[in-house]
Amino acid sequence: MGKAPSILIPPSILILGGTTEARLLAGRLAVERNDCAITLSLAGRTRNPVDMPAPVISGGFGGAEGLAHYLRDHGVTLLIDATHPFAAIMSSNAERAASDTGVPLIALRRPEWQRQPGDRWTEVASGVEAISALGDAPRRVFLSLGRQEAHVADAAPQHRYVVRSVEPIEPPLVAPDVRYILDRGPFAPTSERSLLTAEGIDAIIAKNSGGSASHAKIVVARELGIEVILIGRPPVPQVPSATGIDEAMAMMADHLPLTERGA
Ligand code: NAP
User: Fold this and answer.
1) What does the alpha-carbon distance between residue 57 and residue 45 come to, in Å, rounded to a whole number?
2) What is the DSSP letter of 2?
3) How far is the CA of 87 from the centre of ligand 1 (A)?
4) Cα(204)–Cα(121) distance, rounded to whole angstroms?
5) Is the model's pLDDT at 129 over the cut of 50?
6) Which atom of ligand 1 is nearest to the CA of 146?
7) CA pair distance 144, 142, nearest whole angstrom
8) How far is 49 from 55, CA to CA, in rounded Å?
9) Is the CB of 88 under 6 A from ligand 1?
10) Is 43 in the pocket of ligand 1 (CB under 6 A)?
11) C-beta separation of 208 from 233 below 8 A
12) In whole angstroms, how large is the CA radius of gyration of the chain?
């Protein structure tokens, strides 16, 4: 009997996204590795996400077990955790699902911002700690925590808040003096300087997200001598990690041969 014809199964990559890096990585793969099937997964929190260069699934998997089922059911051959540095539950689920299924996992984790001379940082571990670090006296606060966590400010309604988020804060904060700004990065130093100056901001509350899209406020705060109350990152599992797109592409290459299966 002759040898059965074989078919080539393209590698199937699932990128857990929600970050600029995930989108850029998917774009690079779409151009440079069009032999691969790429899927981008979003949490589904943003009502109008920007256009993505790969097919998108949205809304979660149902924990680590759900993700493991997805990996098996869809024949995923490589899992990329390119989630936001504060999306620690998803990163932990990715690590568990990868180890349960044997699917290789690579994380794409942008470096944290590092304190520079002139920075007036107060480093804290949570949004709750950040609000308490403002103190009792009324201040003018720029709050950049995202919709899910903005309500930590309800504990200190004596401050005036300027709250910037991609999605509306609903319900509104309890503080009587709040200005809401709906906007999505990247943000430029010029516009950040205008905003912080015009609003007379004397404290910024932000997460140490790293990356360039939201870094301008940190740079401008340094220039203007504004205190930044910076929330440190949650712990995430130690897995093979890249800090940028080029490094991730190089690490992925080892896992992306065409697989051959007898028909
Ligand atoms: P999380 O707390 O790590 O995850 C909570 C759940 O959301 C996960 O268990 C998962 O649901 C779902 N999920 C998260 N990322 C997903 C993805 N890429 N694809 C599919 N499902 C996903 O993450 P989070 O609630 O999104 O955010 C936590 C922190 O990260 C917040 O501080 C938020 O502001 C910040 N952040 C997140 C994003 C983002 O795109 N996720 C973007 C910017 C900032 P299942 O268990 O059902 O799978």
Assistant:
1) 12
2) P
3) 5
4) 9
5) yes
6) 34
7) 6
8) 13
9) yes
10) yes
11) yes
12) 21
Q: From 52, 69, 71, 89, give the residue whose CB has the most ligand 1 atoms within 8 Å, as the site to mutate.
A: 89
| Mean pLDDT of all residues belonging to the chain | 94
Residue 121 has what pLDDT? 98
Confidence of residue 2 (pLDDT cuts 50, 70, 90): low
**Cis bond before residue 234 (omega within 30° of 0):** no
Q: Kindly indicate the confidence band of residue 263, based on its pLDDT and cuts at 50, 70 and 90.
A: very low
Residue with tokens 């709750």: 128
| Strand partners for 204 | 142, 228
Q: Which atom of ligand 1 is nearest to the CA of 58?
A: 20
Write phi, then psi, for 127 (nearest 5 degrees): -65, -40
Query: Helices (H) and strands (E) in the chain — how many of each?
Result: 7, 14
What's the pLDDT tens digit per position in 86-121? 999 999 999 999 999 999 999 999 999 999 999 999
| Mean pLDDT of the region 172-187 | 96
pLDDT of res. 258: 55
Alpha-carbon torsion 199, 202, 206, 211, what sign?
Answer: positive
Determine whether the shortest distance from the Cβ of 62 to ligand 1 is under 6 A. yes
